[in-house]
């Protein structure tokens, strides 16, 4: 009778043992790997060093204008002053020459989630612009002409973008005042100059700068109440509470008066939300023409949708009607507010 047990290990085929890879001969003079190789150095053209400048800013602008033609930019690193506090030397480096900062993480601290990047790569390029105390002129001296990177597009140099922005800032400011969006402004810039290095973030930053200059340390509401009378085109009124907080603001532009005089019988009022950082409801007051189109009569910010808040705005609207010699509207459309 044949046995049903499996074959014994001795009856099975011997297990194949993989061969180990051959050992490479040691090469003591082998070149280092690509990761260990130092970056290759490059030399870019420099502006004439025999030029003299009235101010260091003039010299920096000149070298960056020259560097824009050759794909690099420079920035100030540090400066020295005389005993009398007069700045005499400004040390200049490549805009990629600042040392890469590495923050030491405490032991056991979690890894930072925010991953930042930088273009700095310790470029060795170094110059200085020095003041001649006798003539009062500034001139360049070179300490290291080598760069550890190749020429790069101007759009990768924030300094070059800043210099170009200063040349077109007036036009951009006019377009922003007209309410054009960033994409249209950028399209117009690229149409006028296909080689422009500006991007959308530069226009956003410029808009923020103009906004900060307009506020001049004031809150947006303070700036609004101060600038509206200066404009001279607005009819407005506001109320404050015991703590001098604005609780209601009514505004009407003078361009609405002509339409309101001929179309004052029917108006519509409705509140919109989330239109401002203060969370105040915005009450839109709209009129209707004989052709069925609408126009803005005015708008108001109110603290809430209670009767007291509406009474304040309606009283302002009544005053506007009386000042214009108009009869009160016969119909006011709302959505059960």
Give the mean pLDDT. 84
Structural class category: alpha+beta
Radius of gyration: 35 Å
* Gross morphology: elongated
Tally the helices: 7
Biggest sheet character: 6 strands, mixed
> What's the total count of β strands?
12
pLDDT under 50 segments (min length 5)? 30-36
Order of helices and strands: EHEEEEEHHHHEEHEEEHE
Give the terminus-to-terminus CA distance: 100 Å
Main β-sheet, spatial strand arrangement:
7-8-11-10-9-12
Domain module tally: 3
The amount of beta strand, in percent, is: 15-25%
- Report helical residue fraction: 25-40%
Describe this structure as you would to a colleague.
With 337 residues, this protein is α+β, with helices and mostly antiparallel strands. The chain has three domains: 42-98 and 119-152; 158-215; 221-333, no CATH class. The chain has seven helices and twelve strands. The chain has a six-stranded mixed β-sheet, with helices on both faces. The chain has a four-stranded antiparallel β-sheet with strand order 2-3-4-5, with helices on one face. A two-stranded antiparallel ribbon has the order 1-6. Strand 7 (234-240) and strand 8 form a beta hairpin. Helix 2 (158-177) packs across helix 4 (200-215). The termini are far apart. Residues 30-36 have low confidence and may be disordered.
